[in-house]
Amino acid sequence: MIQPLTLPSTSSVEQPSFWEEFQPNRLLSSLMAGLVTGVIGVIRAISYAALIFSGHLAIHLNVGVGIAVYSTAAISIVVALMSSLPGMIATPLAAPTAVLAVLAAAIAERMSNAPDEQCLLTVTAAIAIGSLCTGLFLVLLGIFKLGKTISSIPYPVVGGFMAGTGWLLVAGGIQVMTDRALSLSQLPFLIQLPLFLHWLPGLILALLLLLVSKRYQHYLIMPGSLLCAIGSFYAILFFSHTPITTARTNGWLLGPFPQGGLWHPLKMAEFTQIDWGIILEQSGTIATLMFISLLSLVLTNNGIELAVERDINLSRELKAVGIANLAAGMGSGMAGNQALPSTLLVHKMGANNRLAGVFKLIPCTAVLILGSSFLSFFPKPILGGLLLYLGIDLLWQWVYKAAFKLPVLDYLTVLSIAIAINIFGFLQGVVFGLTLSVFLFTLKYSRVDATKNESSGAIQRSNIERSHEQVEILNQKGEQIYILQLHGFIFFGTANQLLDQVRDRVEQIPQKPLNYILLDFHLVSGLDSSAVLSFYKIKKLAQQQNLILVYAGLESTVETLLQQGEALEESPQIQTFPKFDRGLAWCEEQILQLECREELSCDAFKLGMRLQR
């Protein structure tokens, strides 16, 4: 008999204690992983600061870097110690940072006639309030265990949000390198010398990073590429006999910066200088930050689950990331959450220990100690190129690749949301996407009956006549066949319920053995992309448990969608049949044959087969 495997989850997999991580082999791997992810995190933090503190706020970039680097350290340590997954890395991410850039730009524009110090304090306070509100919001969601409820976000809305973020990052990268916004009115100036030469190296770097990261998966590729880019920049200055002062004057380096440290948390005495009314005017943007942070957390959590093939406690992650954001906000820091690339990097290095996130503090602390003297030597094309890379990568995934994976209506929804975000703003774009998704769902679902039935092989039988001995065997062993008869249009809501049903049945394996999951599609009219993702998770769950997944009654369009989403593939563990009865009969035959081999007596089975013939 096929022996079920234990479901790999953070609750069932024995994890090493925190003190066991201080063993020399674990300690060394954690240190290396922490240093590597820390260097990447610092460079990204500087680029995020340059995105937020641009335009009128560029003179305060050193303060912005302090905010971003402190946030990177604080969020990483809290999540590393509290996450349900050892080796989880958290940091400020591109999507929430893009919202903060919109927030900071709006405040700077409203306070264009106010003193620079007051504008800086108001922007810093708004960033801190955004982190505190986001942290409290996530903690409450985690306490009330609302993780499963919020995970039912329509897939096209997620895609549109990511595509819109990608374009904002591209525009931000151009502004960092040229000090001009990427718009139709500025386009004639951006394509003329010398501005063209300022953003062209960043674009080349972004394309090289994209090419290298897609082709090679080694954990040193990203930090090595960035360090090589910085070295190449200074090599060009050296061989062209260009003094650093000239490069700084011509806008190739960050700065100049005022003297002093980078991190300047707000003091009580400064609260009277903050324009609280303007911050209140931006409450909609702060609410958008909270929603976008939640969206990023859910999306990242799903991605990490699929990559490490382990269930993650979403409610615990909400509380961990929420407390991390509260810690960041208390120090006037920015919001952040789990980082998919860095977390996977740690696991690939075999350093899935909590200390990896703690050691990430070392590079962050070094930058905060070195201060503005260190930042003044950082090339703008490197920061702008990194932002362009992050943006182009999102656009490649959600605008280009999505065209081949998503149904036409879902793909048009993604594009519409991305356009709306960049024209009207994040909150308006996401609301528009949700409204459009509900409308399309109502249009599709109004035509079909969304019902389904759950049973087992002990209750439901195929039309093949069986002998008395075979019937007795199926009465005893039929629970090994888990049958789900699916009906109607399966969408983002019902798909999550279906996935939960399968997970609940898998958790019962110790009491009720299971070998086959039989999905009957003969009354299914269609799927959306979120449903395809759920079936992909069902496939991964079946593979983890060494179960056989049986598809029956697939219509050609549904089969194509499942194949495009990698939920259906050629494998001994995946079987397809044109009709439900044939799929059920095949499962029954497997049970009977296995029982025959186990008992070393096939008389009853052979007699039954002769009677059938």
SS strand fraction: 5-15%
Overall residue-averaged pLDDT value: 84
> So what's the overall shape?
elongated
Q: Within the largest sheet, what's the order of strands?
A: 3-4-5-6-7
Largest sheet: 5 strands, mixed
> Quick one: how many beta strands?
7
Fraction of residues in helices? 55-70%
Overview of this protein structure:
The protein is an alpha/beta fold and 613 residues long. It has helices at residues 24-52, 61-82, 94-110, 116-143, 147-150, 155-178, 187-190, 195-215, 221-239, 244-249, 276-281, 283-308, 314-330, 340-348, 354-359, 361-370, 372-375, 380-405, 408-424, 426-445, 468-477, 492-507, 529-544, 556-564, 580-599, 603-612; strands at 90-91, 337-338, 453-456, 481-490, 516-527, 548-552, 574-577. Helix 4 (116-143) packs across helix 12 and helix 4 runs antiparallel to helix 13. The longest helix has 29 residues, at 24-52. It is elongated and about 90 Å long.
